[in-house]
Amino acid sequence: MNFRGAHILSVAQFARQDVDKIFRVADRMEPFAHRRQVSKALDGAILGNMFFEPSTRTRVSFGCAFNLLGGHVRETADVDSSSIAKGESLFDTARVISGYSDVIVMRHPRVGSVAEFAEASRVPVINGGDGSNEHPSQALLDLYTIKKELQSQGGTIDGMSIAMVGDLKHGRTVHSLSQLLLLYKDIRFTLISPRELSMPADIVDRLRQEGHEVAETDDMESGLQDNDTVYLTRIQEERFTTKLEADIYRGRFRLNQAIYTRHCQPNTVIMHPLPRDSRAEANELDADLNQHPNLAIFRQTDNGVLVRMALFALILDVEDKIADTAADVGWYTERRF
Amino acid sequence: MNFRGAHILSVAQFARQDVDKIFRVADRMEPFAHRRQVSKALDGAILGNMFFEPSTRTRVSFGCAFNLLGGHVRETADVDSSSIAKGESLFDTARVISGYSDVIVMRHPRVGSVAEFAEASRVPVINGGDGSNEHPSQALLDLYTIKKELQSQGGTIDGMSIAMVGDLKHGRTVHSLSQLLLLYKDIRFTLISPRELSMPADIVDRLRQEGHEVAETDDMESGLQDNDTVYLTRIQEERFTTKLEADIYRGRFRLNQAIYTRHCQPNTVIMHPLPRDSRAEANELDADLNQHPNLAIFRQTDNGVLVRMALFALILDVEDKIADTAADVGWYTERRF
Amino acid sequence: MNFRGAHILSVAQFARQDVDKIFRVADRMEPFAHRRQVSKALDGAILGNMFFEPSTRTRVSFGCAFNLLGGHVRETADVDSSSIAKGESLFDTARVISGYSDVIVMRHPRVGSVAEFAEASRVPVINGGDGSNEHPSQALLDLYTIKKELQSQGGTIDGMSIAMVGDLKHGRTVHSLSQLLLLYKDIRFTLISPRELSMPADIVDRLRQEGHEVAETDDMESGLQDNDTVYLTRIQEERFTTKLEADIYRGRFRLNQAIYTRHCQPNTVIMHPLPRDSRAEANELDADLNQHPNLAIFRQTDNGVLVRMALFALILDVEDKIADTAADVGWYTERRF
Questions:
Q1: 3-class DSSP state for residue B251?
Q2: Which residue does chain B place closest to A51, by CA atoms?
Q3: pLDDT band at A337 (very low <50, low <70, confident <90, very high)
Q4: What ipTM score was computed for the predicted complex, to two decimals?
Q5: Residues C295, A308 contacting (CB under 8 angstroms)
Q6: Residues of A in contact with B78 (CB under 8 A)
Q7: Residues B133, B112 contacting (CB under 8 angstroms)
Q8: B60, B301, B335: best mutation site toward chain A, by most A Cβ within 10 Å?
Q9: Residue A190: CB partners within 8 Å, gap ≥ 6?
Q10: Which residue among B277, B331, B337 sits closest to A122, beta carbon to beta carbon?
Q11: In the Cβ-directed half-sphere of B287, how many Cα atoms lie within 13 Å?
Q12: Phi, psi of A215 (to 5 degrees)
């Protein structure tokens, strides 16, 4: 695809070479995200960071990525209750807001809303999450993390094995990540979930059609064996009819240090899209793994900044100007790890 | 008036030459708003964008205008419930906040609050809307749009004809626009509204005293004839005692393609302060006109950025420094229209 | 202490020389805060301004201080209801958010939360207030104001006299200020409060152990005599079980022009941490003193910007680079006083 001026609405729009390109640009963003250099590539540009559903982390991640390229961020952090109450259409909102910025990130609770918004927008739009539908930058940062983690072990995405665990029915991230993995070869999937929360059949079918190996199970202990990566998810309580129904499944699949040692390979990468539910009754990924070197969950969110910088750079066509505008950083930038 | 360091609280403070000056400066803002050039005129300055009432579009428009001049924006997007609950006076809020910024935009639900705030502020204040009272930058952008639209047809504000349609009793924008039009000559007004929602008598009287022609009617079809501009408004539901009362009038006056073709001149400019109410029961301006070349509603919001940039430039006295600090833009800036 | 990369969590972490250092750096921030010069020392740096409890003034003050040093500000202005509802731990929030910024300011309603957050953060954290516990930048700006006010009268903190008035039991600011004053010598404290709202005994004891003179009284008129500074506080209604209980004390101690003239020294400095409660039933500091030259309450909030700039400069180790990156200001910067 041609990224210049493009909307980023769905992982379905990417070919493998597109993903490769995003990742190559993301790699080059590291000196800026790690505060070794400052970029002015987007000095004077404005991001419209429109979050019509609360999401502190994703909102701040996009805003930070734009600042790191030198741009300004204008934003909204909540439902636009005033406009909705006054009956404004998404078409009108898009026409108006797109007159204020160079690129827009939009999150909205309704499925399809961001595509509808992008249709009317005069500037490029990135989908920051439209309900249970899509959140493409999350899928990209997940895949980018898998690539980097496996690379550091001498592995590749092609030929890898991955266990996905938890609420695979409602989890937007495992759906999108699976769709991106369709672009790669010979992956072995182990899908671990309660039967009632299993991965939608059409996704499983497509994975198999593309030649991947898919096993489904509700037995976590056997499922965890022999995987390069284990991707855990939270019970998506907000997608259930009642909290009671969600409670049935909460806490059923848990990974902690003891289970990891007993059932996983010694270097299995541990991932989670966050937030993880750390309450005692859920606790799908125990804090006793917090210091584990293969726990990649915070590298995931760090990589999110790189991937979002790459998307901005590609859409606004400055990926080749970033090095020219780079300057050294003069303040304290050590990080505690 | 002397703009340097001035508060902008009401359209009543402008003479015709002041409006002309704002519009001349607004014209010069186009290369920046259209992202052909970047300005650093306010590099390091801080806008206090204080919205004590939700208003995503106006808030983002002011913030964007300030960013386009190179400045930082600090803001609040909601009622300051904590301070109000603790009994803080507007005087104190103004003294404190004005120590943080170079200029303040303030929106507040109470009539007169912004003037009271400005009295105590140590820096210039722009009224971003104080309840049903004033919203001067909206009136300026409306008039600036009329001027540019008529100009492109070879016309002028002096001698033009305008129909104002809808809730003329509660509509803050039609009141303020009428007041600005007092500064011009020989305008023919057609005021189309339910009798109960007609334009306040004092405004009509003043228009006539200044030599303008004013006709009032509740018949839309005849009223639409022979106008250069038609300015539609929404039923201001929030100003009625009950939703039921508002429902009586909602949907009574509607403009769509068929009515436009039948009753308007072929090049009548269509305006609306937005948001327009697109729900079926209201729909005062139909989406079937969205592609019409004379639909100026999104040019209005675009012009809002120019007018707000001009106000900041004049108040902070940098209007003559903008060209000197201009640089070319290096990122993707094409716009879809 | 070594400020470079340090967390600022409590006034207890400062020795007298640390406070002196902060104040020396704060003095050098005046040309920037007063808009005579612009600094680029933190150009490209990002502040994560995380307010998980509403506080317009403190949030904007920190953001403005960072902008004045040239940095970007990413922020949240409200409880992160989504993450809390999803069961995210402070550890996870800290790991994630600290990947987005160079320094974090955090306010949170729970005592101890900011220290817990800082423990997991990979970047320096400043406590912007954790419930009834600590708000160190407020105590620093109070003390900095006392120092500057007394200095202009030829006085010093050592040997001064101060009356603290009002709700001394719940007032976080008087507790923290007292703790900082432990670092100085020979201070005479007059603590004026209802008996039920008197200063906690452990604070009084420590003051006396360090050689300070402490008198406690519930008689305001006698207590006001012979003080260099009087520090008024609001009844902290939100810390009482019921509003009714707070009402018993509200309005009991009031300072106005008449009382000041009758009972205070002619140059007693009047302070208040703000917001002051200006409702008739409370009104602990009357508006008839608003023009009094010794009313320092708005100089306090102005000084807050200087002190916060100093903290950022010290933590991020740019205090010696600020002069090098300074440029002249080209816009209107006169202030009304």
A1: coil
A2: B56
A3: low
A4: 0.95
A5: no
A6: 78
A7: yes
A8: B60
A9: A161, A162, A163, A164, A215, A216, A217, A223, A224, A227
A10: B337
A11: 14
A12: -115, 140
As to burial, measured by CB atoms within 10 angstroms (0-12 exposed, 13-18 middle, 19+ buried), residue B232 is buried
- Scan for tokens 């640089």, then name that residue: B327
Cβ of C91 and A287 within 8 Å? yes
Greatest pairwise CA separation for chain C in angstroms: 58
Length of chain B: 337
Taking the whole predicted model, whether its pTM rises above 0.90 is answered as yes
The pLDDT assigned to C110 comes to 92
**For position A190, what pLDDT does the model report?**
98
Quote the Cα angle for A191-A194-A196, to 5°: 110
Look at the block and give the residue holding tokens 């929360």. Answer: A197
Tokens linked to C74: 């990413």
The percentage of residues in chain B with a pLDDT greater than 90, rounded to a whole number, is: 85
Query: Are residues B95 and C276, on separate chains, in Cβ contact within 8 Å?
Result: no
- The whole-number pLDDT of residue B247 equals 83
Integer Cα distance of C39 and C47 in angstroms: 16
What φ, ψ does residue B316 adopt, rounded to 5°? Answer: -90, 5
Q: Which domains does chain A have, with CATH numbers?
A: 11-135+304-328 (3.40.50.1370), 137-298 (3.40.50.1370)
Sign, CA torsion A162/A167/A173/A179: positive
Put the strands of the sheet holding A125-130 in their side by side order.
Answer: A72-76, A46-51, A103-108, A125-130
DSSP calls for C145-184:
HHHHHHHHTT--STT-EEEEES-TTT-HHHHHHHHHHTTS
* Token code pair at residue A179: 């769709």
* Chain B, nearest residue to C72 by Cα: B72
Tokens 């009798």 appear where? B195
**Given an 8 Å threshold on Cβ–Cβ distance, is A63 in contact with C42?**
no
Number of Cβ atoms within 10 Å of the Cβ of B217: 16
Do C260 and C271 form a contact (C-beta atoms < 8 A)? no
Structure confidence at residue A302 as a pLDDT band (50, 70, 90): very high
Task: Please tell me the distance from the alpha carbon of residue A267 to that of residue A270, in angstroms, as a whole number.
Answer: 9
The full DSSP string for A322-336 is TTTT-EE--S-----
Confidence class for position B129, pLDDT limits 50, 70, 90: very high
Average pLDDT of the segment spanning B275-299: 95
Answer yes or no: do A67 and C48 touch at CB < 8 A: no
Residue C281 vs residue A140, higher pLDDT: A140
CB C309 within 8 A of CB C22: no
On average, the pLDDT of chain B sits at 94
The pLDDT of residue A82 is 63
What's the pLDDT score for residue B80? 66
- Residue B336 is predicted with a pLDDT of 73
Shortest CA gap B26–chain C (Å): 18
Spatial separation of the C-alpha atoms in residues A142 and A158, rounded to whole Å: 15
* Distance between CA atoms of residues C52 and C61, nearest Å: 16
Q: Do B301 and A89 touch (CB under 8 A)?
A: no
Structure tokens at A114: 């961001």
Q: Which of C332, C335, C336, C337 to mutate to test the interface with B (most CBs of B within 10 A)?
A: C332
Nearest to A331 among C97, C100, C317 (CB): C317
**Looking at residue B84, what is its pLDDT?**
66
Do the chains contact at B275 and A44, CB–CB below 8 Å?
no
| C-alpha B14 chain-centroid distance | 15
Among C305, C332, C336, select the one facing B4 at the smallest CB separation. Answer: C332
Cβ separation B327–A44 shorter than 8 A? yes
What residues in A contact B35, CB-CB < 8 Å?
Answer: 45, 102
User: pLDDT tens-digit profile of A25-67?
Assistant: 999 999 999 999 999 999 999 999 999 988 899 999 999 999 9
Which is higher by pLDDT, A252 or A337? Answer: A252
In chain B, which residues have their Cβ closer than 8 Å to the Cβ of A40? Answer: none
Task: Write out the H or E segment, with its range, that includes residue C63.
Answer: helix C56-68
